[in-house]
Amino acid sequence: MAAINVGDTAFMLVAAALVLFMTPGLALFYAGMVRSKNVLSTTMHSFVSMGLTSVLWALAGYTLAFGSAEGPFGAIVGGLSKLGLSGVVSGVSGVEGHLIPESVFAMYQGMFAIITVGLITGAIAERMKFKSYLIFAGAWVLLVYSPLAHWVWGGGWLGLSGVGALDFAGGTVVHIASAAAALAAAIVLGKRKDYGKPELVPHNLPMTLLGAGILWFGWFGFNAGSELAADGVAGSAFMVTHLAAACGMIGWLAAEWIGHGKPTSLGAASGAVAGLVGITPAAGFVDVLPGMLIGLIAGVVCYYGVRIKTKLGFDDALDVIGVHGVGGTTGALLTGVFASTAVNAAGADGLLAGNPAQMLPQIVGVVVTLVFSFVVSFGILKAIDATVGLRVDEETEERGLDIAEHAEAAYVF
Amino acid sequence: MAAINVGDTAFMLVAAALVLFMTPGLALFYAGMVRSKNVLSTTMHSFVSMGLTSVLWALAGYTLAFGSAEGPFGAIVGGLSKLGLSGVVSGVSGVEGHLIPESVFAMYQGMFAIITVGLITGAIAERMKFKSYLIFAGAWVLLVYSPLAHWVWGGGWLGLSGVGALDFAGGTVVHIASAAAALAAAIVLGKRKDYGKPELVPHNLPMTLLGAGILWFGWFGFNAGSELAADGVAGSAFMVTHLAAACGMIGWLAAEWIGHGKPTSLGAASGAVAGLVGITPAAGFVDVLPGMLIGLIAGVVCYYGVRIKTKLGFDDALDVIGVHGVGGTTGALLTGVFASTAVNAAGADGLLAGNPAQMLPQIVGVVVTLVFSFVVSFGILKAIDATVGLRVDEETEERGLDIAEHAEAAYVF
Amino acid sequence: MAAINVGDTAFMLVAAALVLFMTPGLALFYAGMVRSKNVLSTTMHSFVSMGLTSVLWALAGYTLAFGSAEGPFGAIVGGLSKLGLSGVVSGVSGVEGHLIPESVFAMYQGMFAIITVGLITGAIAERMKFKSYLIFAGAWVLLVYSPLAHWVWGGGWLGLSGVGALDFAGGTVVHIASAAAALAAAIVLGKRKDYGKPELVPHNLPMTLLGAGILWFGWFGFNAGSELAADGVAGSAFMVTHLAAACGMIGWLAAEWIGHGKPTSLGAASGAVAGLVGITPAAGFVDVLPGMLIGLIAGVVCYYGVRIKTKLGFDDALDVIGVHGVGGTTGALLTGVFASTAVNAAGADGLLAGNPAQMLPQIVGVVVTLVFSFVVSFGILKAIDATVGLRVDEETEERGLDIAEHAEAAYVF
Amino acid sequence: MKKIEAIIKPHKLDDVKDALHTLGVAGLTAYEVKGFGRQKGHTEIYRGAEYTVDFVPKVKIEVIVDDDLATKVEDAIVEAARSGKIGDGKVFTYDCAGAIRIRTGERGPDAL
Amino acid sequence: MKKIEAIIKPHKLDDVKDALHTLGVAGLTAYEVKGFGRQKGHTEIYRGAEYTVDFVPKVKIEVIVDDDLATKVEDAIVEAARSGKIGDGKVFTYDCAGAIRIRTGERGPDAL
Amino acid sequence: MKKIEAIIKPHKLDDVKDALHTLGVAGLTAYEVKGFGRQKGHTEIYRGAEYTVDFVPKVKIEVIVDDDLATKVEDAIVEAARSGKIGDGKVFTYDCAGAIRIRTGERGPDAL
Ligand SMILES: Nc1ncnc2c1ncn2[C@@H]1O[C@H](COP(=O)(O)OP(=O)(O)O)[C@@H](O)[C@H]1O
Ligand SMILES: Nc1ncnc2c1ncn2[C@@H]1O[C@H](COP(=O)(O)OP(=O)(O)O)[C@@H](O)[C@H]1O
Ligand SMILES: Nc1ncnc2c1ncn2[C@@H]1O[C@H](COP(=O)(O)OP(=O)(O)O)[C@@H](O)[C@H]1O
């Protein structure tokens, strides 16, 4: 094995663990917002992704995303030489001087796939059949996530070696892709029976807040770790990540205070997540004040973003589109505005650094991701609907999915 | 102080913190499964181990386990020169080039002792006197855990420098040892009054799921950290740990779905833990596909393992034997099957790599650990029962141990 | 950028993340102790500090604390050249050979500011207006925390380059300062309407215990990270931190068992936190046994410390003074007793190492911090009270602050 | 006066409340209960052990009204709570001998 | 019809339910309550402060039956719920003036 | 015997319990309910959506006493639970036809 960098490896091992930890955090974040009869169902959506997505990632996803980009289809999908993570145990990844074991890289990237699937599930809460969800999740990892990751990070046509879209840690691949799938799911599934009724309030906000805290914590692994080294860019990604989360919280709370007269704790948590989503594509490319601005804007814009669903009339139960779609798009575009090679020589300059041309690949990145993920997700969902069926029956929805789908009750106080 | 490796030290500091974090995770995992009147009692079992075990470890456990293996009793127990962690503050541990401060090593190992004691407590839930538990836990750390750790990792007779049993991160020392103690405790304590009644269902499964999430997260410190360096073996241990957890979840869920027609969230959590237990002894020694297989097998086998108690008629309340005993044994044996020096030159080849002889030390490791821990635990428990008494009175059991033993109520909504 | 140390950077990135994670932990720790109608209000106190304090820290706090100590006011407050974290993205911090990116240092220190503000809020629970809290928190960060951090760690007059007070990780700056502010707040706010009534019992102790677990975990980042390098001193700080927490738990439980006949889980958690508080100033300066002794003493002393409020008749709702004030003072003084240059050459010898003179700067550190924080806090609070008002009206207090101030209910089971 | 108690499906509470409000009923009291009856419960599974849970979550509402309003209240509840499926619940009526409004001390129907 | 209310120890609920079921009672309603009576409460300790909690957790069950079944139901509850220790609870009986099954609109004993 | 039910503000429970205890009442049963009445509820906000919650948390207590104690009990509750503000609650009285102490089988007023 070529000489790995011990410090970078130490960092990336921990970063991978942190990103894994985000998924239980997400499970809490989401589960606190549903009714107590659907807590376990919602939790399972994220949890089971830690099982299913991981296995599929090891078997095929990794090689589709990060297999060789050479060859005729190399711009579209990775070569198959790493099926079953073949050879990964003794490989290395990264650039000379910052090599890390490929096992660490493969797992680090796998954690992204896990949580991206988890994010989608905010849209399907309280009404989707578990079996159908499993089929959808599995297909989505292989048909949407893995190719997209290849396009942007795996040497494919959309990223720096192609069209040139900047996406440091997954504004497109993770957030926009999951939101587009969420939109497809909300449309195909239809509204919950009780949509719009007052009983649809969060059942356990402390759970949601704890989830948000874990997400924030883990996001350091997500964004700073995306540098794949413990260097100055990782430090600057860490810094703007934290500050964007803070500004996102402040932005949402301010908008809410003005709009409704009260600042809510769910608003604080949602705003922080919005800020984190917004900064994700920009993390290693922007300086402090632009980073804070991105967070602030994301916080405010997502506050309005969550109302889209009411306008458009689909039931995106836990606001995947309003937060991850709107926030991810905002962040991807603002990356094109604020990116600076003074912060990261390996990146590119953006609009304000005198390179308006960077806006184009950013827009392409957003649109391509949106369309690709939406269309394929829609197709998968329609196919499942026509065969296994997507939605639980009325009685199950009324009684709650925990008991009907999992034969368990969340709480017995 | 000899030159320490900064990167390895960075990693091991964090790994030690992660392993400590597993114990609150375990507390949640267990406490969610008991009735709401015994939540604090169950939580305290794990929590107080962070206090008691740590102190005993510092005073004597560490030197018994990792003190000098020279001298007439060196194969049996460590020398006493490090009583009270004497000299540890300026010592170093590890191999040349990968030295870390001995303080970090001593604490890292201490975190293992803490959680091993915590694991046992799944068997004593809802009926053991707190005072008697403290006496048992203290005695067990010094009389069972510390010698065992010495045998396997401290240069004693059972590990690589002796019989040659492979145990990367504690399949025997941690999981089998705790399960054997749990068996002794379940037998000596007897069944809960309400054993078999429907009211014995988990009171808070989201709590259990969060606990499982924390355990998974911390287990990266446990298994990858057992390499004591941020190198390729740590990376490969990380990889198979994660994938075995994923496969364990899938295995249990599949078995459950087939057996009962429903996949449960407790099954997902239990399967993940089973996979983690199974991979623990094998983590740094096996490649990806064997690692996944070990996880899958552990998940399925433990699903059946938890039924042993019903068959044999003892009340292992939270399934320490079914998960840690069965899973740990499965893992220890499969390590002998799948180990490969291609993955880790410092290990050994197993059955499939052409070395069937490795099965012998593996079996010896399992049997010795089981017998040793069971016999000594049984003796300690009987001695306590005959003096202080082990079990709370009937009224306490009915009213709940939280109020009777700790004068507190878990919830006041 | 000068050559940073990759291993140290890896460690400090993670340490910063760990300290951030302490704040959601603190939110749980506190929120579990209030009544269910004030859970979100209490959680928000800590959460919003992650937003507000972070922003203020970036804009001005960092430069006030860690800006240049040169110039006429350099001993009092940092220079303003780093307003808005100007230049931090490409700066480095630390000593030659252990340089880390300044972005990491600035964020690491910012996490301390966040949690220090959070700590204060234990005293204001269940009765303070949210808006007034925000004003107070903002003013406090800039007028109290930042200067204090400058005095002790930023090259100001109180720390090693001045009077010579030893404070490894914030016994004065964090714990005593927050407790003094808490005292001011408890006095100015007055007692809760229901003070002394039996209904004032914790509503969710498992939440508090989880919070304590997260705090313990994060405290490794707090104390070991304060070395700013992954070296032997970090290792020794880690070791005594862990053991002091353990001994603090044992100390409190023992005192409680003797005093009330029952060891409680809240006592275990409180004792662990007391031990952690006590060891904070001493962490990198003392050997194992003194570290354990400090933890033990802190546990016992704080057990009695929480009764002060009943004696003196102010309503320090969640015992900031009893735990952080008493524990922080105990630790700061015992640092003067036990510090040893054999453990840390960059520190100083204490009383037992033959340098009784070290007691003086320690006492000065405690008294100065107490008086400074109390007086300024008192002034800020009185000013707010006279203008915006500090306290919610009676009906809000009765109905609960969650609904009245945040328009949310914590739980809907 | 009459006391009318109804055991209904939880998600019908708002409809029933609104129906009674329209009828001019000034107040009511509600709480969660567990019902056992014709409507079947469900099976729960925990680590391979199956438990039958016979009780179904219901909401009970209580409203005290003047005698002449009683029948109207009964009918309004029945109408608002009916889904036509098993487990819709019951309405029970009792005599109420006295009522006091704590705030004012008013007694009898005036207290309602 | 008669309404029979029983306040019992929580872990007796299943036994009582089974006893009534055997007796042919078609339905009942149960909920958790806090009881104050001869059975002593307990002391709780939070950071050195002691609180006396007088209330003990109990379960209350309600069953409406035809007049002629009433005594049998009372006896069955008493038998199933008795442990012989303080705090076993009480059974209270009331007249019930009317019953309606929401699903069908049936009235009187037929609604039970 | 009479059954007296009172719906009160939650934080008045201890005062009411003490008042009844002083009066010589041996036991009572309490539970949490949601009240709808003159006292207004509140608005909740979740991600920009506003919900009106009409129900207010209340505690209901039930005490069965001998006829001659009934008026005293009513008065004691009214006095202990009154704050003079809207939402103080109500006291309702009903006839109770029978009582049994489960532990001993005693019947009637002796069972109380
Ligand atoms: N005799 C009874 N006494 C008290 N409660 C009853 C009685 N019968 C039914 N209930 C309550 O009414 C609910 C609905 O009754 P059920 O028999 O399931 O359906 P339906 O009302 O359609 O006949 C039950 O869950 C229970 O709470
Ligand atoms: N007069 C009463 N009115 C209403 N509930 C009562 C009354 N007396 C007792 N109870 C209820 O019965 C329960 C048991 O009563 P208790 O006096 O403790 O024991 P026992 O039933 O053995 O006399 C109490 O906790 C309370 O819930
Ligand atoms: N007619 C009624 N039937 C049953 N419960 C009632 C009735 N009227 C009021 N209540 C209960 O009494 C509580 C207080 O009543 P409310 O009208 O708010 O104030 P007040 O008692 O001051 O008139 C309500 O929340 C409700 O629980």
3D structure, described in words:
The complex is a heterohexamer, with three copies of chain A (413 residues) and three copies of chain D (112 residues). By secondary structure, chain A is mainly alpha-helical. Chain A has a single domain (6-406), classed as Ammonium transporter AmtB like domains (Ammonium transporter fold, Orthogonal Bundle), CATH 1.10.3430. In chain A, 63% of the residues lie in helices and 1% in strands. Chain A contains 14 helices and two strands. In chain A, strands 1-2 form a two-stranded antiparallel sheet. In chain A, helix 1 (6-31) packs antiparallel against helix 2 and helix 4 runs antiparallel to helix 12 (359-387). Chain A is globular, with a radius of gyration of 20 Å. In chain D, the strands form two sheets. A four-stranded antiparallel beta sheet of chain D has the order 2-5-1-6, covered by helices on one side. A two-stranded antiparallel sheet of chain D has the order 3-4. Chain D is of the alpha+beta class. In chain D, a hairpin with a 2-residue loop joins strand 3 and strand 4 (49-53). Chain D contains two helices and seven strands. Chain D has helices spanning 13-22, 70-81, and strands spanning 2-8, 28-36, 42-46, 49-53, 56-65, 90-95, 98-101. The chains are: A mainly alpha (413), D alpha+beta (112). At the A-B interface, helix 1, helix 2, strand 2 and helix 3 of A face helix 1, helix 6, helix 7, helix 8 and helix 9 of B. Strand 2 of chain E pairs antiparallel with strand 2 (28-36) of chain F. One adenosine-5'-diphosphate sits between chains D (7, 35-39, 56, 58, 86-90) and E (26-29, 62-64, 101, 103, 112).
